[in-house]
Each structure stands twice: as C-alpha cells, then as structure tokens.
Amino acid sequence: MPPIIPVKNPRVHIPKIVSIETAIRLYLENIELGNAELRQLFGKKSTTIYSKLKKQVREYMTENNIKVYSEDRVQTEAAYKVWGIDIEKLERNYAKLRKYEMLNKPESEVTA
Fold first, then answer.
1. What span, in angstroms and rounded, lies between the C-alpha atoms of 70 and 105?
2. What is the pTM for the complete model shown?
3. pLDDT exceeds 70 at position 1
4. Are 35 and 72 in contact (CB under 8 A)?
5. Residue 110 CA to chain centroid, in angstroms?
6. CA–CA gap between residue 19 and residue 40 (Å, rounded)
7. How many Å apart are CA 45 and CA 6, to the nearest integer?
8. Which of 10, 18, 60, 79 is 20 to 30 Å from 4 by CA-CA measure?
C-alpha cells in the first residue's frame, strides 16, 4: 500500500470518485490531469474545488522535484498519491467485481 501523503490544507475535501473503472482508465490514459479529467473522476464540481485539489498536488510536486509541464494540469501519479487514491487496490477490487459479475450471470450468458 502506498504511503499516505499528509495534506497541508485539511480543509480541502477530496470528493468521492465516480467509478472504479473511470479512475483506472484515467490513470492509465493520462500522464496529466486537468479540469476535464477531474470532472470525469469526481463528477461535476466547481472549478474552485478543482483548483484547490490541483494546488495540493502542485505543492507535493514542488516538494518532490516533479516537473510541471502545464500550469493548469497536474501529474496523474502524484495526484492519486496526494488524494489517497490507491490505484493498485482499485485494480484488484475491479478485477474481483468483474469476476463476481461473471459468477452471478446465468450460465447461458457466461458461455456466450
């Protein structure tokens, strides 16, 4: 399990992710996250919330000498660490969900 990154501004609430599948897809598809990706990850929120979330990540990136390529985007791996999104756990849980969905389907659907 990755270490929990202490958040400097605990008043910033980390919203619940929309879905495990979306969180995994965004992590794998995007090197950096902007507002459009955050909207997919957390659902529709105010741009102020997205700005506060990205500010937390930028502080972590600066402290850890992670290069910033765009002022309006943050590195995906750093963002997930700061926000406490454990991608490995999500992948395991998603695999389990898919496995159990197959077990719960009628046999005719499983063999098709």
1. 46
2. 0.79
3. no
4. yes
5. 31
6. 9
7. 23
8. 18
Q: Does 109 score more than 90 pLDDT?
A: no
Q: Is 59 helix (H, G, I), strand (E, B) or coil?
A: helix
Sequence-distant (6+) residues with CB within 8 A of 98 are none
Token pair 């950096």 is found at 32
| Cα-only R_g, the chain | 16
Interatomic CA distance for residues 11 and 16, integer angstroms: 15
Contact between 68 and 84 under an 8 Å Cβ cutoff? The reply is no
Task: State the alpha helices, DSSP H only, in 1-112.
Answer: 20-29, 35-42, 47-63, 76-82, 87-104, 107-111
Query: Hey, what are 71's tokens?
Result: 């002022």
The CA distance from 63 to 34, in Å, is 20
Sign of CA dihedral 4, 15, 86, 82: negative
Angstrom distance (rounded) from CA 88 to CA 103? 23
